[in-house]
Design goal:
The complex is a heterodimer.
Chain A: E1 5-7, E2 10-13, E3 19-24, E4 31-37, E5 44-50, E6 53-56, E7 65-68, E8 75-79, E9 88-95, E10 108-109, E11 113-117
Parallel strand pairs in A: 2-11
Antiparallel strand pairs in A: 1-3, 3-8, 4-5, 4-9, 5-6, 7-8, 9-10, 9-11
Chain B: E1 4-6, E2 11-14, E3 19-25, E4 32-38, E5 45-50, E6 55-57, E7 60-65, E8 70-75, E9 84-91, E10 100-102, E11 106-111
Parallel strand pairs in B: 2-11
Antiparallel strand pairs in B: 1-3, 3-8, 4-5, 4-9, 6-7, 7-8, 9-10, 9-11
Classes of the chains: A mainly beta, B mainly beta.
Chain lengths: 118, 112
């Protein structure tokens, strides 16, 4: 079956440009996550959605970062006025459950969008 | 101090060797633990969950010591195809209880 898909796979932006990154989660998955992975580092949590509700955005590095999931399926991560330090791979993951206590379920990752800001 | 700490390596081992990776985590309230594998320029993929009782999946054995806040992964009879970065992952209390916190990863290179 189809996994998590992300587009574009690669994005080059000039400093100051706005970018929008798209994530299509696995059909039926309730939870959706965005992570940022800098070169040589592990992924770092950005934000979390349960259906259309953004329940945690504690990892967003600045108010230039904005994420939405208006219909509880596809999600978009938008970065305004991109800076060189935003260069990273942006990973989207989805999981089936609502994260109820005691329930463990797998997060499936998409291939990521590699953003380079010049 | 990082929430999840790993030796970044690289670990260069000959084919057939046994190799062990270790990881420590700082939040004693962490709920679930995993090892993910990440190939170069690919997404992380779940390798296995880690339980206090220890668990084995073929050539891979994972162990959790909650008292020491320590997680390990043992790979026996290593194959060339095991070459990858192994990410120690802790599932925490934020993000709806689902937020994953990753270590920096340990790079493994299996050589002929």
């Amino acid at each position: 079956g189809a996994g998590v898909s992300q587009s574009p796979r690669y994005k080059v932006a000039k400093r100051g440009q706005d970018v929008a990154l798209r994530c299509d989660p696995i059909s039926g998955h309730v939870s959706l996550f965005w992570y940022q992975q800098a070169l040589g580092q592990g992924p770092e949590f950005l934000t979390y959605f349960q259906n259309e509700a953004q329940l945690d955005k504690s990892g967003l590095p600045s108010d230039r970062f904005f994420a939405e999931r208006p219909e509880g399926s596809v999600s978009t991560l938008k970065i305004q006025r991109t800076q060189q330090e935003d260069s990273a791979v942006y990973l989207c993951a989805s999981s089936l459950s609502r994260g109820l206590a005691g329930i463990t379920d797998t997060q499936y990752f998409g291939p990521g969008t590699r953003l380079t800001v010049l | 101090r990082k929430e999840v700490e790993q030796d970044p390596g690289p670990f260069n081992v000959p084919e057939g060797a046994t190799v062990a990776f270790n990881c420590t985590y700082s939040n004693s309230a962490s709920q679930s633990f995993f090892w993910y594998r990440q190939d170069c320029r690919k997404e992380p993929k779940l390798l296995m969950s880690v339980y206090s009782s220890g668990n084995e999946d073929g050539r891979f054995t994972a162990q959790l010591n909650r008292a020491s806040q320590y997680i390990s992964l043992l790979i026996r009879d290593s194959k060339l195809s095991d070459s990858a970065t192994y990410l120690c992952v802790v599932k925490g209390l934020t993000g709806g209880g689902n937020k994953l916190t990753f270590g920096t990863g340990t790079q493994l290179k299996v050589e002929l």
